[in-house]
């Protein structure tokens, strides 16, 4: 997991704009309420090939980065670390999964994106 996070951070540093990921759902929820934004929760699983592809092919795109940062507080959580997000509210067996969450009541804003997705699919959801 540490190697994956290091690679992710290095890839993000190559771009002038990058998604400002949080790894603490509760802190992100507080920040989202403060900034009047919603939450985009990305749930990953260790050793997930599609999860790594999503970071390289989708989240490194400048248009995606700008939209996410403008509208959401982005949270990344690993399924194996259940205490990093409210797993009972956002349970999945498909990885990666993105939940779009209301900062007001933690309800779904729309249907989650489950499994591998392309940039165009994410942009439609944003």
Structural key phrases:
single chain, five-stranded mixed sheet, 5 strands, alpha/beta, 126 residues
Quick overview:
With 126 residues, the protein is of the alpha/beta class. The chain is built from 5 helices and 5 strands. It has helices at residues 2-13, 25-35, 49-57, 62-71, 119-125; strands at residues 21-22, 38-44, 72-78, 97-101, 113-114.
Low-confidence residue ranges: none
Percentage of residues in helical conformation: 25-40%
- What gross morphology would you assign? globular
Query: Quick check: average pLDDT?
Result: 87
Largest sheet: 5 strands, mixed
Walk across the major sheet and give the strand order.
1-3-2-4-5
Rounded to an integer, what's the Rg over CA atoms?
13 Å
Number of helices: 5
Number of strands: 5
Cα distance, first to last residue? 27 Å
- Structural class, from secondary structure content? alpha/beta
Report strand %: 15-25%
N-to-C series of helices and strands: HEHEHHEEEH
Description:
The chain has 126 residues and is α/β, with parallel strands linked by helices. Helices cover 39% and strands 18% of the residues. The protein contains five helices and five strands. It has a five-stranded mixed β-sheet with strand order 1-3-2-4-5. The longest helix is centred in the N-terminal third of the chain and has 12 residues, at 2-13. The radius of gyration is 13 Å and the shape is globular. It starts with a helix and ends with a helix. The mean pLDDT is 87.
């Amino acid at each position: 997991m540490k190697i994956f996070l290091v690679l992710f951070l290095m890839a993000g540093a190559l771009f002038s704009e990058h998604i400002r990921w949080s790894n603490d759902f509760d802190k992100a929820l507080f920040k989202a309420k403060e900034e009047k934004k919603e939450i985009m929760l990305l749930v990953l699983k260790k050793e997930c090939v599609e999860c790594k592809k999503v970071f390289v092919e989708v989240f490194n795109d400048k248009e995606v980065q700008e939209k996410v940062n403008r509208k959401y507080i982005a949270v990344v959580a690993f399924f194996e670390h259940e205490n990093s997000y409210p797993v009972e509210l956002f349970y999945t067996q498909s990885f990666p999964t993105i939940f779009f969450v209301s900062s007001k009541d933690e309800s779904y804003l729309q249907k989650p994106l489950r499994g591998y997705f392309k940039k165009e699919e994410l942009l439609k959801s944003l």
